Amino acid sequence: MKRALSLIGAAVAAFLGSSAQAETLSIATVNNGDMIRMQKLSEHFTKAHPDITLNWVTLEENVLRQRVTTDIAAKGGQYDILTIGTYEVPIWTKQKWLMPLNKLGANYDVEDLLPSIRSGLTTDGTLYAAPFYGESSMVMYRKDLFEKAGLTMPEAPTWAFVSDAARKLTDKKAEVYGICLRGKAGWGENMAFLSAMANSFGASWFDMNWKPQFNTDPWKQTLTTYLGLMKDAGPPGASSNGFNENLALFQSGKCAMWIDATVAASFVSNPAQSKVADKVGYALAPDTGLGKRSNWLWAWNLAIPASSKKGDAAQAFISWATSKDYLDLVAKEEGWANVPPGTRSSLYANAEYRKTAPFADLTLKSIQAADPQHPTVQPVPYTGVQFVAIPEFQGIGTAVGQTFSAALAGQTTADQALQTAQTIATREMTKAGYIK
Amino acid sequence: MARAATNRKKLVVTLVAWTIGIVIFFPILWTALTSFKTEAEAVATPPTFLAFHWTLENYTEVQQRSDYFLHFWNSVVISVGSTLLGLLVAVPAAWSMAFVPGKRTRDVLMWMLSTKMLPPVGVLIPIYLLFRDFGLLDSRIGLVIVLTLINLPIIVWMLFTYFREIPGEILEASRMDGAGLRDEILFVLLPMAVPGIASTLLLNIILAWNEAFWTLNLSASQSAPLTAFIASYSSPEGLFYAKLSAASTMAVAPILVLGWFSQKQLVRGLTFGAVK
Prior knowledge:
The structure holds two protein chains of two kinds. By secondary structure, chain A is of the alpha+beta class. Chain A has helices at residues 2-16, 33-48, 61-73, 88-94, 115-119, 143-148, 159-169, 190-200, 217-233, 243-251, 264-268, 311-321, 324-334, 345-349, 351-356, 360-369, 393-408, 414-431; strands at 24-30, 53-59, 81-85, 122-123, 126-127, 130-142, 257-261, 280-284, 297-303. In chain A, strands 1, 2, 3, 6, 7, 8 and 9 form a seven-stranded mixed β-sheet that branches. In chain A, strands 4-5 form a two-stranded antiparallel ribbon. Helix content of chain B is 72%, strand content 0%. Chain B starts with a helix and ends in a 6-residue tail after the last helix. Classes of the chains: A alpha+beta, B mainly alpha.
């Protein structure tokens, strides 16, 4: 009996035993086309660095955010390289959670990184995360529908023009809607769009004393314009539409205009996915003449936890993945259309890239038009265009997003939604100690 | 007349059962169908039901990109391991509660159940820190322990309910025949409670297989089960629904097959003692 028990014990131990830990770099990343491509091409890196092996952990964006935040806050040391957004970088740098990237090599050419992207990743002149791909937002529109309606889209439209055109282009019987915009609640969903839109109307999240600004006129104009436009010219059920839902609508020919991430341009112009691939035009995100456009700025970046013991190897990988040579490698292996955009000036000077990507110029202009250090018309105490780079923003942003999404669904009025947003934001900012 | 009424009743009940069955199964069927579509067809409006270009490209790509068998094996180890470990603790616990109840047995049972009412995220950081200090992060053994603890209340409750259906006199008789406590549990109680134990086992394997909070938060690359495999195909920026569906189908297929083959035991166990 004893022997049998010890045998069972040994079998259970073998069954449960965890795998041997190899000396490897563990990389946490999001699931999008560019990252998956990097994973595929990483054999070029491991060939050049035979002493380094790579372990990939790919997760959905929100799961990844929760996972890596827990790990870095608890100093769990599960990852050597993290994929984080422009929202996290300044906050985590302030917490001293990130390792300065000062060993990227002589050939890295930091100066080539687009200034607006680089500025959000730099603290006191030191780079704490390297951009892998960057994006802004812009208008994607149907050239054929505009032509049919006798309208011409300017390269830099105003909200007045976009609103007017959207109403004219709407043909609800034919299920063609003038404009598709995000409505799904979330700080990175509808609030990314609405915060950027508010910037162009002269609104801001907070004033210099961190007092929420939802009770001001610019916010009222922003929300009433948005709600009115979506009611008259938006698709039904817009309050549950995020990037993917609008992408599906636009690709199937149901939207005359869509304002969203510049990365969408490569999807909607791809004939394998999009029914309207050859009919798409691009323009800058609209403004109201106040000096700020309604486009956001986002980048997915690679960073190293300050506690990592494999800093040198991790920097070697980051240097490879965000280098000019990597862009050339992708171009060689998968074509210029698949090169991760929005990080390096040299890419936009490349004639071959510009030929393959007709949206390249506007993507660059959109990125350049966004200034995360000075995102609003009035001065504000925070950085970030479509977010506020403070740890409390995720919670507040999502709660406010829910009230605006409810207003879009017709459950509350614009005034009620703004009042609720003001109450939520004031309460949370007071609790967090920003408002004394 | 009576027969006609019975037949009509039977027909109605059958129809209702089929309708409910189809409604419950439809999302799984839709996921399986989507996994054979191209990405463009997966989001086409109006959606196509069967008349689309069937393709296996999503499965090929998922297979190329991820190590399905590693995730599958992790899922097997974690779900089976945590259930067996749970049973090892729960059988004696349920025995004592069912046959030698004390003054506070009911309170203990309720307290155990109340731990299930705590939102898991509330204890994420303390557990994470414990795992870090014990070197259990991203290990299968760590996940086995945490899932055992999480499912233990359910296992104890289920076993307790089954054991209470067994007359205490039978155990008494075995004791009079000279059986010790171990023999009484191993050779008298357990064989009589096999249907109950089987359904507890199956239900807990399913629960552990589907558990997606702790398995995602405490694993990285080595111990990540199929829940992490699915999460790696979900994306808020990019239409990868067909690939996500292929990954989901591959993740649920094993447990679906297990449930299919063991449905008799499951139903028998869940209704054990209900008709006396």
